Structure formats: C-alpha cells, structure tokens
Amino acid sequence: MAAHAAFEHQAGEQTTTIRAVTGSVITSPGSADPEAVVSISEDFLCPACRTFEMEFGQTINDLIDSGAVAAEYTVVAILDRPTDQDYSSRAGVAMYCVADEDTTSDKPAFRRFHAALYAQQPSETGTTFPTNDQLIEIARQAGADATVPQG
C-alpha cells in the first residue's frame, strides 16, 4: 500500500497541487479531487479508536457523502499479542481486503464492515476474539462480494 502524500508548490502565480493516494481513499461519487483528505490511523482493538469512531464516524461519512472530504484509513496493530490471537493485525488485513474488493468510490461495503468491527469490538483485555471465519462472515454481512474466501 502506497503512502498518502499531498503538497502544493507555488511557482510564480501558478499553484500546482500534487497528491498521491491509494485505492483505499473513500470519496463521494463524482468528486475525484476533494478539498481535503482526512487520514485516520487506527487499531481495531483500541478502545480510544472505537470511541473516535462512535463519536465522529457518522460525521466523517456525511462529509465524504457531501464531497467536502475524502478519507484514507491506515491500520496499525499496536495491540497485537499472542494472547489476543493477533486480532489487530487480522482485523486490519480483513479491512484492507474488503476495501480492495469494494471497487466503488464511496465504498459502502467497506464502511459497513468498518463500523461493524467497532460495533463488535472485543475487550482489549478479554480472552475471546473473533476468528478468521467470523471476520469473513462480518465482511459478507457488510456486503463484501462472494469472492471473499472461505475460512
């Protein structure tokens, strides 16, 4: 996955904006060049990340839908541990798979899957974590295509 970079260069009276983004940037249909890109780094086991999603997720979606912003999601697995079966990494990889599979610019299946992962977030200190098969089922329920592999 390529990094997101944006900068402006002013030469004389002309300003050129250069933006390199990945296919995981979510935009409103028809808004290929949004005013701003909101970059969100998150861990699906992180309670603070869940709080952020619960507080601001709908607002971000509304801003995407209005064409005011695009959103780029980056997963970090800072809470991976053998005792949680590396849930952060597994959920993050699943998120990238759903994002790649959802080829529409506004990525509705991705957005539903993203919200579902936080709605069903296990306790950071718990002992039970979703299996790969359960993550696949959550992806299917969110609308991921039948090409999502069987567990």
Any chance you could write out the topology, listing elements then pairs?
Elements: E1 5-11, E2 14-20, E3 36-42, H1 47-66, E4 69-75, H2 87-101, H3 108-119, H4 132-141
Parallel strand pairs: 3-4
Antiparallel strand pairs: 1-2
Helix pairs in contact: 1-3, 2-3, 2-4, 3-4
Can you give a write-up of this model?
The protein has helices at residues 47-66, 87-101, 108-119, 132-141, and strands spanning 5-11, 14-20, 36-42, 69-75. By secondary structure, the chain is an alpha+beta fold. The chain has a single domain (22-141), classed as Glutaredoxin, CATH 3.40.30.10. The strands form 2 sheets. It has a two-stranded antiparallel sheet. A two-stranded parallel sheet has the order 3-4. β1 (5-11) and β2 form a beta hairpin. The protein is globular.
